[in-house]
Amino acid sequence: MIDIETFKNLALSFPETVELPHFEKTSFRIKNKIFATLDTNYLKACLKLTETDQSVFCAIDKTIIYPVNNKWGKQGWTFVELQQVKKTILKDILSKAYTSVAPMKMNAKNKL
């Protein structure tokens, strides 16, 4: 199980990431682009992935990692159930989400 503090620490470990409110959730951003949100009420994260990364991670277990219903899901937004996901998988998903929105020069500079 991933607790709220662990999720925040992992998300904020990426260069230049900031934590800001986003409606009733918390968002994690790079250069003002959201790569993850956290819903503390439901212990669920929503991450921005590429379509390919989304299909790979969802194949692990669709009850733990699954696309958002609607157009947002078709754009790569993916739910992660924090009570069930393994920390190693969450680290990988967060890294992919970060690199999906971070400027290319930052990805190369930080070798993500």
Summarize the model shown.
By secondary structure, the chain is of the alpha+beta class. The protein is built from five helices and six strands, in the order αββββαβαβαα. The chain has one domain: Aspartate Aminotransferase, domain 1, CATH 3.90.1150.
Q: What is the general shape?
A: globular
What is the class in the CATH system? Alpha Beta
What is the domain total for the residues? Answer: 1
How many strands appear in the DSSP assignment? Answer: 6
The whole-number mean of residue pLDDT values reads: 93
Model regions low in confidence, pLDDT < 50 over at least 5 residues: none
Task: Report, as a whole number of angstroms, the end-to-end distance.
Answer: 25 Å
Topology-level CATH name: Aspartate Aminotransferase, domain 1
Radius of gyration: 13 Å
The helix/strand series, from N terminus to C terminus, equals HEEEEHEHEHH
Number of helices: 5
The helix/strand class is alpha+beta
Strand line-up in the sheet with most strands: 1-2-3-4-6-5
Helix content: 25-40%
The main sheet comes to:
6 strands, antiparallel
Strand content: 25-35%
CATH architecture: Alpha-Beta Complex
